[in-house]
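Allow me, if you will, to draw on your knowledge of protein folds for a short while. Thank you for your consideration; the sequence and its tokens are set out here:
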Amino acid sequence: MKQRKKSKTQTNTPASSDASRTRKPLYALDVGYGYTKVIGEARTPMIFPSLVAPTDLQAIHVGLGKQSNTVTVDHVNYIVGEQALHRGFRFSEEYDGWWTSVRYRALIQYASQFIPPGSHVITGLPIHVFHTALAHQQVQDVIRRGLRASHVTLLPQGVGAFMAALQQDDRLNHSRVAVVDIGNRTTELVAFAAGDYLHHASKGIIHGIAPLYQQLAELIRPDGHQPLDPYEVEAAYRGIRPIRLNGKSIGQEEMKAQLESLIEPWLETLWSHMRSLWGDGAPSYDRILYCGGGAALLGSYLTQQFRNDATISENSQLANALGYLTYMQWQHEKEDALSPAPLASEQRPDPVLAEPVQQA
């Protein structure tokens, strides 16, 4: 993104400089069903699995390995992230109203160690619930309480990914772009034209990559072996941490061969939704952009069908969080360019969105 040169008038504008001095630090927060991502203005990401489990009162810590990552919600202790992986029980099925759940609140509490009190937090909601007023109120309340945030801005998921891509290629701001944000449980199909979010051509679907890892876990599990955790299978598939079965390490190539048999039917369901919304091959769109953790998993499979000129976003797992941060930074740049700075009641929604951004 080209840096805007500040004139002497802009630099010396009291209202603008005062706004900059009193502006709260920005943090993007993307709480996914699979992973939670936090990014501040220093652009150093923090990613941890969205796993939460109650602490075991009978457990004994012998001083080996890492200490548990423990948070307290309603006077009860919970373990968050990697340390929750091997617990006998963990929360796993909170979905559309999950921001009111213990799991979501525990994730927010854990994120508070990376987000200082008083920050301005930008986060997102799945499209299929974004236009629900109650969801906005509930999310803003949980984040304000859990992070002691000064402001909370909500965007539709997928808008962040577009903003991140726009920072890399400003030609997208003059194009029709279809964004496919593939997550752990949901996929967001989001359309833009000349920088405007097209609500009528966008939708969220309950079709994420979690079932692929669940099915892969069953395929590679030896007979008589206890069920494998899909998170462990994912980590092994990505080359993060190996998985051993009956003393034997399962290689990535072996897992890829098994996964191929599952990907084709999964993709057919995705193509069906895309054709229904945008037409076969999305002929009225200049670009198709894939992002999200699912895009990182599926890789070239996504560009072999439907449309072969599609692209996969850089840092696809972090695309939304990076874009949330970019969106708010651009808002601040526009405010700083105004002289004098407008009152909050005079500000208009950003042209990227056809509807006002929800803030609290």
Observations:
- The chain has eleven helices and 16 strands.
- The first strand starts at residue 26 and ends at 31.
- Confidence is low (pLDDT under 50) at residues 1-17, 60-65, 343-356.
